[in-house]
Amino acid sequence: MNSSEASIRASAAVLRQVGGPFLIESVEVAAPRADEVRVRIVAVGMCHTDLVARDGFPVPMPIVLGHEGAGIVESVGSAVQDLVPGDHVVLSFNSCSACPSCAAQTPAYCYDFLAHNFSGVRPGDGSSPLSQAGATVHGNFFGQSSFGSYAIANRRNTVKVDAGLPLDLLGPLGCGIQTGAGAVVNSLGLKKGESLAIFGGGAVGLSALLGARAVEAGTVIVVEPNESRRLLALELGATHVVDPKSESDVLAKIKALAGGGVRHALDTTGIPAVVATAVETMLPNGMLGLIAVPPPDAMLPANMMSMLVRGVGVKYITEGDADPQTFIPRMLSWYQQNRFPFDRLITRFPFAQINEAAKASESGAAIKPVLIL
């Protein structure tokens, strides 16, 4: 147990207005409280949720975003008994630890998820661990605000990892990759030999493909308009890819490729018309997982009679139904066994190029940008 008593100065990407840009500024990072950990960030992934928050999802400003941090423990609070300075860690989403969902080891459905991940403050007293000359800079985004050289995290969302692993690659396991892989492994319960259709071949969709391959799924079809991503999907183990721009009947194509339909399906696009196709691809007793943020007024475009006669369901999925303390080690075990090459999804950027990384993410030039500090 070791706890620094003083704040330290850090470089951070501060967001001051809706729509950006991220501004690299100096901030003060407070000492960790009893149940907190202060981490020197080595690398941090950029997730679509960071861009959603930048572009208008209601978070207070100024704020430091970032929620796929990986780094080295610098100091720990007095109540933290199982981490010490020097430990390598991955930071994930935060949760309250006390609600029925957390008690059932399903922290992705924490009753206070928004307060612990989007409020920009500590839920207990409304304070932020970040400041500038005494003025508050909102932090605690996903319990970390890791777009900076140091971050304060809670012990609950800090996962210790093997120091021999490439720490600069590991941050995205805390959210995007965990969400995709967890969606098929945890939420849909995909089993060896079962079939799956994935709509969207971005970071989450391709992570779902990796998860499907890790559990030895059968036919896995990826529907994606970007040619380079279709080719990558094939390299990563997709049995078939479909270009929805050139295929006149995507549903018929999937049924033909999968021998009548797939066991489960996963939509990562949030586009109602795509969801309408996805829900029809499934064989009896299948489940469609939904991940993406839809338009605010979107309605589920499903034919109820069609769903009835097949007994299929639809489930919205948060964070891949994962408990980071157990699922991140599981993914790392697959990686060490050469069964989960998530590193193929990553493009590195210097931290100073955070705005360029954001543009690459939005344009599709990079599947999963990771900022190196």
Structural class: alpha/beta
Return the domain count: 2
Measured as a percent range, the helix fraction is: 25-40%
The CATH class assignment of the largest domain is: Alpha Beta
CATH topology of the largest domain: Quinone Oxidoreductase, Chain A, domain 1
Which percent range describes the beta-strand content? 15-25%
In the CATH hierarchy, what is the superfamily of the largest domain? Answer: Medium-chain alcohol dehydrogenases, catalytic domain
Number of helical regions:
11
Family: Belongs to the zinc-containing alcohol dehydrogenase family.
InterPro entries: ADH-like_C (IPR013149), ADH-like_N (IPR013154), ADH_Zn_CS (IPR002328), GroES-like_sf (IPR011032), NAD(P)-bd_dom_sf (IPR036291)
GO biological process, one term: formaldehyde catabolic process
Domain Alcohol dehydrogenase-like C-terminal: 203-332
Short description:
The protein is an alpha/beta fold and 373 residues long.
Task: Describe this structure as you would to a colleague.
Residues 203-332 form the Alcohol dehydrogenase-like C-terminal domain. Keywords: Metal-binding, NAD, Oxidoreductase, Zinc. One of its GO terms (biological process) is formaldehyde catabolic process. Belongs to the zinc-containing alcohol dehydrogenase family. The protein is 26% helix and 24% strand. It is of the alpha/beta class. It folds into two domains: 8-174 and 341-372, Quinone Oxidoreductase, Chain A, domain 1 (Alpha-Beta Complex), CATH 3.90.180; 180-318, 3-Layer(aba) Sandwich (Rossmann fold), CATH 3.40.50.720. Strands 3, 5, 6, 9, 10, 17 and 18 form a seven-stranded mixed sheet that branches. Strand 17 (346-350), helix 11 and strand 18 (368-372) form a beta-alpha-beta unit. The chain is globular. The mean pLDDT is 96.
